[in-house]
Design a protein that fits this description.
Layout (H helix, E strand, L loop, with lengths): L1 H8 L12 H12 L5 H4 L5 H7 L15 H20 L7
């Protein structure tokens, strides 16, 4: 890829073996990028979101929505209200 070649020529590309386990790859990336990263940032523990993205923590299960989605019902009600308001605002023209 041309973009990767640009970074390789500039000496800014880091080669990483991704055939290892996720945590090992993460640790390898952290160690290779640590010279370019603030030390306080590399020593921080992973956030829940980071652990989920790395596959170290399961994603939370979504709650099933009830059959009638209340948001959709509210949108429909608002559309009906707007139609009613427009009908009331329309002036009637009387023929002479």
């Amino acid at each position: 890829m041309p973009t990767v070649e640009i970074f390789r020529k500039a000496g800014k590309a880091v080669e990483v073996d991704t055939s290892l386990e996720r945590q090992a790859v993460y640790n390898l990336v952290v160690s290779k990028l640590s010279p370019f990263t603030d030390g306080a940032m590399t020593s921080r523990p992973l956030s829940e979101r980071s652990e989920m993205l790395l596959g170290l923590r399961p994603y939370p299960k979504r709650e099933k929505k009830p059959d009638g989605d209340k948001k959709d019902d509210k949108k429909d009600d608002k559309k009906e209200e707007k139609k009613d308001v427009k009908k009331e605002e329309t002036p009637k023209v009387e023929d002479e």
